[in-house]
Amino acid sequence: MTGPIGGKRGASAVAAPYGGVVLHRFVTLRWVLEPAVAVVLLACWLLFGSVAEVQTAAAVSFFCGAVALSRIAPGVALGLSWCAAVISLVGPSNLAAPFGWMAYAAVLLTLFGVAAHGKPVVLWLALASAPLLGFAGAVALGRQDRVAFPHFGPSIGGFYASDGVALLLTWLVLAAGLCIGWLVGYLVARQRASEQTAGASVLVWLAQSGGAPVDEPGQESGMLVRRLTTRQLVTDVAIAVVFALGCAVTGGSARAWILVTVGFTIAVALRRMSPAIALAVAWFAAIVQMTSGLGVEFSDVGVLIVLYATAAYGDRVVRWAGLVSAGVGAVVAALYLSVSAALQTGYFNLVSGRIAALALQFAFLFVVSATVLGLSWVLGLLMRTWRSALASRRAQAEAEVERLRAQEDVVVEQERTRIARDMHDVVAHSLAVVIAQADGARYARATDPDAVDDALTTIAATAREALGDVRLLLGELRHAEGEGPQPTLADLDRLVDQLRAAGLPIELHRTGDDVPLGSAHQIAVYRIVQEALTNALRHGDTTRTATVDLVGEPNGVTITVTNALSEDMPADGQAQRIGHGLPGMRERAVLSGGWLSAEPRGDRFVVTAFLPVPAAVRQGGGA
């Protein structure tokens, strides 16, 4: 059976990052992994356990068979796990000490394999089986007295209240561990189905061949192992080292304490690279801590760090798993701490008053644990939200910049096209004048020689003006349709009257020299004044007078258009709103050889432009 990226094609895609040719040769033999693990488990049972009884031997065989078949036959593996669990419950209770925990490890590995390679139906059956198999394991461990509790409280048929408390606590712990193992397998299957596996992780690489793809509508894809920068990796490792040193300073030297410290340190180191694996390692470390009878240690801070990471860095599934872990962890921690405190203070013969005190202590510890664990998760979620909002604002700002650039490019292109259309009329008019003067001179040459000189003079001036216009727009000339009469400086009075009638009071002043401007420059002056006054009418204060000043100078003309800013709009806001017309005005001024500036000054908005007289017009003395 092959997965969604099975066969030679899938092998090539993922083998290279993890050893090149060597792993490429073994990529098709990954199905051997689970049988090899099953063989190791069987060897451990033979070395440390007792499989002399028929029922025990059958249970061990079923457990090992379930692990071996979890990849190639997930449904059969789940059924074998259930058979082994039932045999363990009805079988002898005098089994060797390692039997219960090795059986739990076998179930954990089986659920991981079924979740990683099973079809959707088997996948969810495995999740539903996790708490039930956890309960079966708790009953089996209780029958073997592997979780020792002094007998206290009322007794019914030889079953003490302490047995119920021990069963509940053990069930919660074991079920949580099995659910976490299933979750990791589920995330492996989801990543494999999303085909985002090249260079992801050895764990995912090992999961490639075998199993059916996880294909659920609306499923959020996510990477089990996130890529981090070198700086992030170094930072995470440094934090884990500091955490381990803190545990070493405040902790002990027992074997169980060392295992717990190592587990939480690994979880802290992996919290950002793989929040799901960090959560699993933290749960297993907590299981070791509680089953070993250890109290609250400094290493428990690792739980808070991991819960924060699940909300801050995990995807949707991991985030919800972290929240559920916070709730279940609060119940387990409160129950564990309250019962431990009761045992240490000698609450063995509980009466009604002491039971009430114990219940009140449990409720208090639950509230405190839920608050602390939940707060860690919420802080991670807030950090994630803040990062997302920051990234969204950054993307929005970049998109806005791109939009403005695109709009400006469009405006500039449209303006160039309009200028080309304007100049089409100018050039056509100039050539028509040249042709008419030349024909007239040719016919009048015999009767009126002086008329020839006047015609030649007019032809030269007109040609110079046309040449200057062509040079201005030689690079930007565009073909367009739809011609009409083009405005000149004489049309400014009509433009001002139109805008006055629209409600904008305007004062027009002409000072300085009488500057001879060509047709293109006159059009540019007209369009600049038109756009500036239109913006004043749309965005300015129409109750205050706008001014237009045309100052003639020996080498050009200066245009200044001033209008009052609206009271309900700041200067920068107006500049942004009227910015769509500014590129067109600026483009006209630049193409005419001049410049243009537009900016707010105090409570007024000022547009200033300078257009030089073309050299051809100065030499020819006008058109």
SSE blueprint and pairings:
Elements: H1 7-15, H2 21-26, H3 33-48, H4 54-69, H5 74-90, H6 97-117, H7 120-143, E1 155-156, E2 159-160, H8 161-193, H9 202-206, H10 230-250, H11 255-270, H12 275-291, H13 301-313, H14 316-344, H15 352-444, H16 449-472, H17 492-501, E3 506-512, H18 519-539, E4 546-553, E5 556-564, H19 571-577, H20 582-591, E6 595-601, E7 604-612, H21 615-620
Parallel strand pairs: 3-4
Antiparallel strand pairs: 1-2, 4-5, 5-7, 6-7
Order of helices and strands: HHHHHHHEEHHHHHHHHHHEHEEHHEEH
Runs in which pLDDT lies below 50 for 5 or more consecutive residues are 1-20, 146-158, 196-221, 348-352, 475-484, 573-580
Please tally the β strands and state the result.
7
The number of distinct helices, counting runs of at least 4 residues, comes to: 21
Provide mean pLDDT, rounded: 75
Radius of gyration computed on alpha carbons: 42 Å
Helix content range of the residues, please? 55-70%
Characterize the quaternary organization of these chains: single chain
Give the structural class: alpha+beta
The fraction of residues in strands falls at: 5-15%
Q: Assign an overall shape.
A: elongated
In order across it, which strands form the biggest sheet?
Answer: 3-4-5-7-6
Main sheet makeup: 5 strands, mixed
